[in-house]
Input
Amino acid sequence: MAKFGYARVSTLEQDLEIQHERLKKEGCTLIRSEKVSGGSRDHRTELATILDFLRPGDELVVTRLDRLGRDTRDVLNIIHECEQKTAFVTVLDPYVSTKGEMGQIVMTVLGMVAQMERRFIKERQREGIERAKQQGKYKGGKRRIDREAVWRMKNGGYGPSAIARELGCSRMQVYRVLGEDTNSGNAP
Output
């Protein structure tokens, strides 16, 4: 029976140290961590590793439920996967565990709260952007991909997969650039 800690923050700039310290104090023998959004399970390889490794009687420990995920369905699916392996999930703040009968109900409610919080954050962000636009202060998000390079490579005979590999981005980003520029008449 082992205790596995999972720590997560959403951005590269955020620090995992407080979560690591708390998980160590809780007696976690192994702590996996990552800097990736909790909005979905995509790209959360460390979480997947823990879930694959869990054995009967093991425990997955997180400091707060939103570290496990921001979407109620994802959180409940993670808990379900743990239960299928007869492993447990424990959240430290507020303390709740699936070891007890009430734990599942409390986890469901906390998962719904985490999802609502995520929606509130997005709404506040949208409101802030709209206000900044009205005041002429909004300059838009920073471009994450060199659009000219995409078109140079496209015109040079590269396909979307090759362009994505070369530029270190996803194919979807390449398709988006090619589609936006074609629709707006900005294609070279």
